[in-house]
Each structure stands twice: as structure tokens, then as C-alpha cells.
Amino acid sequence: MHAITQREPGGPEVLAWTEVPDPEPGPGEVLIDVAATAVNRADLLQRKGFYPPPAGGSEIIGLECSGTVAALGAGVAGWQVGDQVCALLAGGGYAEKVAVPAGQVLPLPPGVDLVTAAGLPEVAATVWSNIVRTAGLSAGETLLVHGGAGGIGTHAIQVGKALGATVAVTAGSAERLERCAELGADILLNYKEVAFEDEVKADVILDNMGAKYLGRNVAALNRLGRLVVIGMQGGVTGELNLGALLSKSASVTATSLRYRPTPEKAEIVADVLERLWPLVAGGAVKPITHGVLPIQRAGDAHRLLDEGGVFGKIVLSVRP
Length: 320
What we know:
The protein has about 325 residues and is α/β, with parallel strands linked by helices. Helix content is about 30%, strand content about 25%.
């Protein structure tokens, strides 16, 4: 098969479409003929050498895919060769084939085509596991989403609204904020012009910035608020005012989806199927695709994401 590989860490130019050995499904795994994959910011970090796969995982970039079941490993039930699926991966998505634990495979949501579905598993599992399973967002609460125009952000806005929350977002331009409003965002905060902590108080904050926003996020929390950190775009080390946190009886949680044990991922995926997929089927939550590029242009897709103008997800088509 062919896959995107890299000879060394570096810029987008190190990515190349090359021939590699076919993966084989192990016990409990499903082999997928990949139709499409999608670009996540974690992919850019892995390309640069900063985000290695879990032990034993594929060195090939790619945290999600869509495609057709090609083969079943020993002990797999519930899937058949020929089923159209999408899947959450620990790696290996930028390829023509990938083997994945069966518990991380999902049917296509009704109404979502095979290529578009490639951009759903990572954002769906990330958002649902963090704002619902970890933070317990409830109807009537306020959710603050940093990076509202990104893949995670555009999905989180819609999930928050579907759950009955008031949704606040940060983004870097009036145009991007307006597009967030079209998805349902209620409070629009241009981080270049306002201090978000002075403009909104939130019960749940989904944060991709990490250290840079730590103190400001705590200041923006309501009493009993929950800050969930899922990224470190603003650095890894920050100062936490425990007094401010204690006074609000608030909490800070940091999570990573990629490094969770396989059984835990399977629990998240099962919950996504049961509770989130009906929202997608009903149109309350829609996949937001910035554009589709052929997999051979993965480097160009990485450049686009790095430049900061992408709204939603970039999908990479693997098969015509």
C-alpha cells in the first residue's frame, strides 16, 4: 500500500507519498480500506517530532479515517467486510489501509457521506469525552470554547447548543466569529480586542491554549466551574492561583485522547454512537469541512492549517 511518511521531523515538505508494507488486523482489530482521513493540529506536532504515537502504535500520521471494512481480526463481531465506517485512530490514517481496534470503529452517521465522515471521529470523541463525560455540561450552563473556528471548536459549539447551553467562543477575526455565530454561538469574543475573562463567566471551558490562558481561564470560571485543557498551543508551564480556584470550588482537568487505553477509547466511542450520533443524524450537529484535498497534498493541508485560516476540518481524500 501507499502512505504518507517522513524521513525526519520537519516542515510540510518532509511528507511524502511512498510505498509501505500493508498492515494486518490483529485479534480484535478491523482492517479498513481508507477512503479519506482528516488533518488535526496534533498531526502537525507529530510531523515536527513533538507528538509521538503511543507505544506500539503506527508511526504514520493520522488520528481518524473513513472507509470500507476490508478484513476482520480474530474475535471481531458486529462488523462485516464491505461495511462503510469511520474510526478513531491512535495513528496510521494517512494511508490506503489501517488496522484499528474494533471498539474504535463507528458506522457512518445517517446523512453523512463517506469522505465527509473522515473528519468526525476525532472531534466527536474529543468534544463529547471532555465537555459531556468529563465536565458534565448541562442545559442552562455557559460553555466557553477557545478556538471556536477550528475543527474542535466548530463541533463544540454545536454540541453545546444541542445540550441547551449558552455558548461563548473566542476567535481572531470578525469574519470567523460571524461564522461561529451561524453555528449557534451566542457570545462572540475577538481575543485580539477584548479580555475574554472580563466579558464572560463560564461553567465549562474547553481550552486548547494551555499555559498562556491558565490564569485567565480560572478568572473566567463561575463557582463550581470546570476547566478542561486539551491543548498546549500557548505553552506547557503556567502559574495556577489555587486561592482563586478554591474560592470558586472549581476544577482544572487536562486530558489527552490519543494516549488513553484502548478499553477507555471504546467506552467513549460507544457513548458517541449512542448519544451524539443521533444529534448528527437529526442535523443538530453537522460536520464542518473547510475543504477536501488529495492525500498526496498532505503537506499543503498542513500549511493551510498552520496559516490559521481554516474553518472546521481539512479532509484528505485517499481513494477517488
